[in-house]
Structure formats: C-alpha cells, structure tokens
Amino acid sequence: MLVTTGNEVEGHAIGQYLGVVRGIVVRSPNIAQGFLGGINQIFGGNIEAYAQVCEQARQDAFDRMVLHAQQIGADAVIGTRYDATEFTTSVTEVLAYGTAVKLVRKG
C-alpha cells in the first residue's frame, strides 16, 4: 500500500477517489511508563517512556488506516495526516487519516 502526505503518486494518475480512510487509537501509558515518565519530568528533557507510547499509538493508528484503505480496495492513501486529542489526563486519541484512491499508471 502506497501512503503519502502528498496529493499525488509519482508515475501514476488518480483513477478514482474512494473517500476518507482513518485509523483511530486511544492510548494511555502503562503503570511502568507512567512511573518512569513522572520521574523524568522532574529532571526535564525528552521523556522516552512517553515517546514510546506516542510512537506506538501513531503506528497503530497508521496500520488501522491502511487496513481501512485495503478493505475498500484502495491502491494508495494520499494526503495522509495525523491528529491527536487529549481526552483526559494521560489519555490521548491519535487519528491517522487520508484519502483512499485507485491508481492508473501513466504512459
């Protein structure tokens, strides 16, 4: 599955727009990550325990978006973006979304 933040795929034309696809994940750190993150907040700097939670949430949201695109027969997802919203303390929704398309090879 081709996925891009751009609005086109080199060497291909958009044959059909299939619509918006998305992947949504709601995450919070586990007890160990929350504890380590809390300790790191005292000293400042990058909080790797929280960065791992964020990266896993983004990857899971991305994977769900790609699955959604596959389910509707897409060849690619263009205009891919991420969004995040904090629901409550330490609970965040991560959304990956884009436009699913069918591609036609140019030339």
3D architecture notes:
This protein is α+β, with helices and mostly antiparallel strands and 107 residues long. Helices cover 35% and strands 43% of the residues. It has 2 helices and 4 strands. The chain has a 4-stranded mixed beta sheet. Helix 1 packs across helix 2 (48-71). The longest helix is centred in the middle third of the chain and has 24 residues, at 48-71. It starts with a strand and ends with a strand.
Question: What is this structure's SSE topology?
Answer:
Blueprint: E1 2-3, E2 12-27, H1 31-43, H2 48-71, E3 76-88, E4 91-105
Parallel strand pairs: 1-3
Antiparallel strand pairs: 2-4, 3-4
What's the count of strands?
A: 4
> How would you state the average pLDDT, rounded?
84
Unreliable spans are none
Distance between the termini: 21 Å
Query: Helix content range of the residues, please?
Result: 25-40%
Beta-strand share of residues:
35-45%
> What structural class do the secondary elements suggest?
alpha+beta
Name the strands of the widest sheet in spatial order. Answer: 1-3-4-2
Task: Give me a quick take on this structure.
By secondary structure, the chain is α+β, with helices and mostly antiparallel strands. Helix content is 35%, strand content 43%.
Name some characteristics of this structure.
107 residues, alpha+beta, four-stranded mixed β-sheet, 2 helices, 43% strand
